[in-house]
Amino acid sequence: MGYTFDFGAVFDRAPELLWGSLGTIGLALAGMLLALLIGILGVAARTSKIPLVRAPVIGFVEVVRNTPFLVQIFFIYFALPLMGIRLNPTVTAIIALGINGGAYAIEIIRGGVESVSKGQIEAGFALGLHKGDVFRLIVLEPALRAIYPSLTSQFVMLTLTTSVCTSIAAYELTSAAQRIESDTFRSFEVYFTVTAIYLVISTLMMGMFALISRHHFNYPTR
Amino acid sequence: MGPIGENEFLFILQGLKWTVLLAIIGFVGGGLFGILIALARTSRNRTVRVATSGYIALFQGTPLLMQLFVVYYGVALLGIDVNAWIAVAIAFTLHASAFLGEIWRGSIEAVPKGQNEAANALGLHYVSRMKDVILPQALKISMPATIGFLVQLIKGTSLAAIVGFIELTRAGQIISNQTYRPLLVFGIVGLIYFIICWPLSHLGSGLEKRMAKAVR
Amino acid sequence: ATVEEIKAKGTLVVGIQGDNAPWGFVNTSGKQDGFDADIATLFAKELGVKVEFQPLAVANRIPALTTGKVDILFATMAMTEERAKSIQYSKPYAANTISLYAAKADAVKAPADVAGWEIGVPKSSSQDKAVTDAVGSTATIRRFDDDAATIQALISGQVRAVGGNQFYGQRLDAASAGTYESKIDFLKTYNGVGTRLGEKDWNEAANSFIDKIKASGELATITKKWMGIDLPTFPESIPNIPFTVK
Amino acid sequence: MLNSSNDQSTLISLEKLQKWYGSFHALKNISLSVRKGEKIVLCGPSGSGKSTLIRCINALETIQDGKIVVEGQLLDGSTKAVDTIRREVGMVFQSFNLFPHMTVLQNCTLAPMRVRGTGRADAERLARKYLERVRILDQAEKYPAQLSGGQQQRVAIARALCMEPKVMLFDEPTSALDPEMVKEVLDTMIGLARDGMTMICVTHEMGFARQVADRVIFMASGEIIEEAKPEIFFKSPQHERTKAFLGEILAHH
Amino acid sequence: MLNSSNDQSTLISLEKLQKWYGSFHALKNISLSVRKGEKIVLCGPSGSGKSTLIRCINALETIQDGKIVVEGQLLDGSTKAVDTIRREVGMVFQSFNLFPHMTVLQNCTLAPMRVRGTGRADAERLARKYLERVRILDQAEKYPAQLSGGQQQRVAIARALCMEPKVMLFDEPTSALDPEMVKEVLDTMIGLARDGMTMICVTHEMGFARQVADRVIFMASGEIIEEAKPEIFFKSPQHERTKAFLGEILAHH
Ligand SMILES: Nc1ncnc2c1ncn2[C@@H]1O[C@H](COP(=O)(O)OP(=O)(O)OP(=O)(O)O)[C@@H](O)[C@H]1O
Ligand SMILES: Nc1ncnc2c1ncn2[C@@H]1O[C@H](COP(=O)(O)OP(=O)(O)OP(=O)(O)O)[C@@H](O)[C@H]1O
Ligand SMILES: [Mg+2]
Ligand SMILES: [Mg+2]
Question: Where are the alpha helices (DSSP H) in chain E?
């Protein structure tokens, strides 16, 4: 077939791609922070002795992990306003990413928390530390270190999931791509270019995590 | 514009059929290809290893949505006249093979080294060594992670909607277009996904726990 | 493939919308249906071949044609100068009015009144283009996957207005009777049959077909059936959008 | 005579403790009082309830019946009582339980800063003092994984001392250590005892008991079977079970 | 004299082997020839290169210099040479390395069927013969995890025998076993030796060496230090290192 490639039309829109990329990175970072927060608070609740605190977290994790992100983000964007909570696309996207990533983070971090020995926790109590301090200062850090690799790959996946946010008109790279495509009709060139940009972004994310781990989890273990 | 009646519900179930079929295609295609990827990734040949790690990085480092787009439009550019089915099948196969390949590489490496040496010492060739000795053990080790990925894949088929494929999510979109009740429709769609994925998730984590115990 | 080749093959692959009732949609029994489906079926009959529908997402229509995935587009393609550079249009066979819909309570007379608003449109549609051209510089345009999402966004209050076609009024009423109305008409567009650039045989077949069904009253019947309106009058020419291959 | 809990100088008094794990009766009617400066060695067969007893004193376990009073504070289950008592009581575990992600110094300053609200500079001064005390100040910047078992246990002792407790509880502090390291930890404990620290120590190091204990208490099946000064305890135990137990223990030494 | 590799009945001949792991020189100029039916015991301190040496014979490790010839086949790195040699050489590992997902019988029939192309019926007949030989035929349908260590090692021996090798290599076959099980494996090996199998055996079971070895070879730091008939080796070792080593080993027995 006599198709001639023309990336020129795509590169002419480089500024849009750049802004889109920044949108994607912003959504991803904000989503990760929220996911981490949900993960940590969720684990605190998930490991609670009170069933009434535990049960909703378990339900939350099961529902979120077993339904597609697309369905979740639709729900937040279109359903919550009917209950009086109206969030703009960016905030919706961040919350949806945070909830989705958070559900996975809860399960991952829980694994880490359970790997911290009971003796450590008792030592904390014996020193007179309170429950919150014990969780925060004694359990969490070794737990995070233990599960850092799985958390990293989950967060890289979260970065890639931002592409789905285009369906609620959030501003990110895929939206930019679709705009450019509908103007230029250069579908293959647009998506090819954007795929390459995603690859760069996810590689950068992994690099960032490697750096954080080198600075933050640099204590020796046996 | 109408209520959601039997017809609409059946239409959504039609979509479910495609969702399941897509997941199966992705899983079978990705599985077959994934074994090759896993083998190449554990090969003694450095070039092969580097090339496959690039392949894995590419497909794990880009959104499935983009993979669908690029394959969908790219295959047509190659002058191959294909319907959406083939494009989507290719995209899911590539995507799944990267993930399954990486999962299985891990489990191949988790098989004790002595097994490989014993097979070597018996004079077994590569194919027999892998097929008879290493892979059966590796696949058992990988079961929880493999099932976990299957759940991801089933959910991932929802993205086929974006290239116009009428699977579960798309069917939901169409019905919501006709009935103007997106919340109800997506509630039902979400529930259907949950009903398929939840038992699988539990099977996976159950296996994981059992294996953790066996190791202790 | 040429028209002759298709006649020989016996099947015509038509690109059509799959989720845009009443233009083109897959009905609940899984069959392609709608205004465009009826017209395309007639066209296939005219050629003496079977019709096979390929439902396309809005953004995929042109690529599907140019890459040969479909032979011809009866896909609710509003005729624009931009698009005319990529595909060949026939004479118009349907008309479409694009307007701004908002709550009755909101006083809007002119484009300037919506400055600062969030306005929803379906991605890559003619509404998208019309609204972006008219108010894109002063209002925030939110682009959704399809009409359903766009309308839902207005009902959920996620946007204050939407750019819609003549059917939106009816649909908004169905969702929330008496709340919304059409405020400003941005433009009237016409839909043409899309064929590949330079392929004279297809273009001529389409044009003579349209002339024939106009004359026979079949077009009017189908328009009435799906749109509930009489056949609009179509212009003889539109600047920069040729109806025939030169 | 020893259970006169109203004695002026009584630091810890336990009255008729009852502790069940489910249907298992782990502590049966335990009464004990410990005076300021007293050193008590607790011994007995495995499963006799020694760990359970000292963990109760520190509120790491809850009791079902009886009274625990430390420095006049009744352990009534309120958070305040637990807090007060834990501040007065330091504990050293068999498995050290140092925090792996903190340096030796951070391990020692954590509780003073968080619990007492001591400023960092003061907390570090205090930590250095006690690290010096257990002769391990030179390792202050290392992480636990970089230390030997004996060194880790000495850090654990310093960490507990930094809360300046009135009493120290030790639960088999040397039994996870290689023989060469046992001595360095025992020496540290002997030093503490010499300085007048009140101590309750679960241990089977009979040399240590002879050298520092004011009383040796023998437990079996959740009960206190016998208590006596070490010279008497080792020479002329009263009960059959004590004799059997001592026979076994001393055979290994 | 012993390295006369052109001897008619020479089965294995190693000439000036050099093996490095990175910059570490693991085998230094090793020459050795083994005649048909000969039984050789290899001993020496940990890290002296014993495992490395026998793994080289079986092409599980590659050498950097020197020559390995087995049954006239030069190990030149070609796949064909490796295949031929591995068919002639059976190997038994310290950790058994049975395939856990196959029954005992399947473990034994796999290689004959896959490598020699033997039919299932013949392969099973062969397997039963050798399982009988190591007196474990009654366990044929069990999985390895259901067997004791000694039984597993005997299955490993049978599995290797099923390929009807000309020579068997053993790498500390009894050192992962509980004392009671060592004897049953040693007895099996003694039986094999009596039947005339050529064997190279890394072991510190000196009783075994005395009973069956034609030669004992002592290695240290990657070199062959001394080789001799067992009666001579144990009674009057020549080198200081051999003496020291024997002193240590025999002290434990
Ligand atoms: N969490 C628990 N649940 C049930 N039973 C327990 C629990 N902790 C301890 N026990 C039981 O209580 C009894 C006393 O245990 P404890 O640890 O106090 O014994 P010990 O004297 O310290 O023994 P050792 O010398 O082995 O440390 C034991 O029989 C033990 O099995
Ligand atoms: N894969 C390897 N990489 C680097 N060095 C190795 C490797 N395998 C073995 N070595 C080194 O080669 C030396 C010889 O090892 P080898 O296993 O042959 O010793 P050995 O005599 O069998 O000792 P042991 O009695 O402990 O089994 C050792 O110093 C070992 O550390
Ligand atoms: Mg204890
Ligand atoms: Mg060895």
Answer: 50-57, 79-88, 104-111, 120-133, 149-161, 179-194, 206-212, 230-235, 240-251
Q: Which amino acid is at C23?
A: W
| Predicted confidence pLDDT, tens digits, chain D (253 residues) | 344 444 458 999 999 999 999 899 999 999 999 999 999 999 998 889 999 999 999 999 999 999 999 998 999 888 899 999 999 999 999 999 999 999 999 999 999 999 999 999 999 999 999 999 999 999 999 999 999 889 999 999 999 999 999 999 999 999 888 877 888 899 999 999 999 999 999 998 888 999 999 999 999 999 999 999 999 998 888 898 888 888 877 765 5
* Torsion A206-A207-A210-A216 (CA) sign: negative
The residue type of D42 is: L
CB-nearest partner of A123 from D87, D89, D97:
D97
Distances in Å between the alpha carbon of A97 and those of A42, A194, B195? 15, 20, 22
Closest-approach residue (CA) in chain C for B162: C57
For residue B214, count other CB atoms closer than 10 A to its CB.
8
Cα separation of C207 and C89, whole Å?
A: 9
| Structural tokens at position E130 | 């050798």
Q: What is the DSSP letter of E145?
A: G
- Number of other residues whose CB lies within 10 A of the CB of residue B54: 10
In angstroms, what CA-CA distances link A29 with A15, A204, C139, C197, E245?
A: 21, 12, 28, 45, 63
Q: Which helix (H) or strand (E) segment is D69 a member of? A: strand D65-70
Q: Distance, in angstroms, between A130 CA and closest chain B CA? A: 32
Tell how far the Cα of D146 is from the centroid of ligand 4, in angstroms.
Answer: 30
CB contact under 8 A, B183 and A65: no
Are A97 and A172 spatial neighbours (Cβ–Cβ below 8 Å)? no
Of the candidates A34, A185, A22, the residue with the CA atom closest to the CA atom of residue A98: A34
Contact status of A215 with chain D (Cβ, < 8 Å): no
Alpha-helical regions (H) of chain C: 3-9, 35-47, 61-66, 81-84, 126-135, 147-155, 168-175, 200-216, 218-227
Q: Is the CB of E50 under 6 A from ligand 2?
A: yes
Look up residue A194 and give its two tokens.
Answer: 């954007």
Q: Does residue E77 sit in helix, strand or coil?
A: coil
* DSSP codes, D119-168: -HHHHHHHHHHHHHHTT-GGGTTS-GGGS-HHHHHHHHHHHHHTT--SEE
Nearest atom, ligand 2, residue E222 CA: 14
Chain C neighbors of B8, CB-CB under 8 A: 28
Least distant ligand from the CA of E50: 2
Helix axes E149-161, E104-111, angle to 10 degrees: 20
Amino acid present at A197: I
Interchain CB distance below 8 Å, D100 and A219: yes
